[in-house]
């Protein structure tokens, strides 16, 4: 059964490859035909260049240049707005202040924390963890009590994750 399936899959794959190759060959032929037509048009223009066709071509080129100037003016306005965000390098090259761009746009997706806030939150969690460890280095009764409370909290968190939620606030009240 598997040999038949493999054979069928191979046949389908080969047919797909042939189709792709045929499509590529057809595209190449079309490109060649287009190039040939363009070359013929250029030769005809060269032959008929001085017989009144220059005026029409000149008007078309002027229209294209006017359109290009309109577009370039709009782009210059856009560039002047973006220049305020750019700074000059020592060599006089414009560079983008990347950290601003990244913090504003890249990480702020709907329902997600910005990268700065995420890093700040993680740093605070690490500080809290270090402080708890430093507090728990001694052997006094208070330290032992705090160790037990933290241990209970950790167990309660693990239990919640497993679906066995305990109420650890009551245990804290009993401990105090």
Describe the structure.
With 176 residues, the protein is mainly alpha-helical. It is built from six helices and two strands, in the order ααββαααα. It has helices at 2-48, 53-83, 98-106, 115-135, 141-162, 168-175; strands at 86-88, 94-96. Strands 1-2 form a two-stranded antiparallel ribbon. The longest helix has 47 residues, at 2-48. The radius of gyration is 37 Å and the shape is elongated. Residues 1-11, 96-112, 120-130 have a biased composition (Basic residues). Residues 1-132 are annotated as: Disordered. Residues 18-45 have a biased composition (Basic and acidic residues).
Provide a quick synopsis of the model.
The protein is mainly alpha-helical. The protein is 78% helix and 3% strand.
Ordered list of secondary-structure elements with their pairings:
Blueprint: H1 2-48, H2 53-83, E1 86-88, E2 94-96, H3 98-106, H4 115-135, H5 141-162, H6 168-175
Antiparallel strand pairs: 1-2
Helix pairs in contact: 5-6
Q: How many beta-strand segments?
A: 2
- Main beta sheet, described? 2 strands, antiparallel
How far apart the termini lie comes to 72 Å
Radius of gyration: 37 Å
Helicity range: over 70%
- Counting H and I runs of at least 4 residues, what is the number of helices? 6
Neighbour order of strands in the largest sheet = 1-2
* SSE string, helices as H and strands as E: HHEEHHHH
Assign an overall shape. elongated
Strand content: under 5%
Runs with pLDDT <50, length 5+?
A: 79-86
Biased composition (Acidic residues): 64-88
Region (Disordered): 1-132
Biased composition (Basic residues): 1-11, 96-112, 120-130
Biased composition (Basic and acidic residues): 18-45
């Amino acid at each position: 059964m598997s040999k038949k399936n493999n054979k069928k899959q191979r046949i389908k794959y080969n047919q797909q490859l042939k189709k792709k190759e045929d499509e590529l060959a057809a595209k190449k032929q079309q490109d060649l035909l287009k190039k040939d037509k363009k070359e013929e048009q250029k030769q005809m223009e060269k032959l008929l260049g001085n017989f009144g066709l220059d005026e029409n071509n000149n008007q078309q080129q002027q229209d294209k240049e006017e359109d290009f100037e309109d577009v370039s003016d709009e782009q210059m306005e856009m560039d002047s707005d973006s220049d305020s965000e750019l700074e000059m390098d020592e060599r006089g090259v414009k560079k983008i202040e990347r950290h601003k761009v990244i913090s504003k746009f890249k990480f702020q997706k709907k329902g997600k924390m910005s990268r700065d806030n995420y890093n700040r939150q993680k740093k605070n969690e690490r500080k809290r963890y270090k402080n708890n460890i430093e507090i728990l280095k001694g052997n006094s009764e208070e330290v032992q009590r705090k160790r037990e409370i933290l241990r209970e909290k950790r167990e309660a968190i693990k239990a919640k994750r497993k679906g066995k939620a305990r109420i650890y606030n009551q245990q804290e009240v009993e401990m105090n």
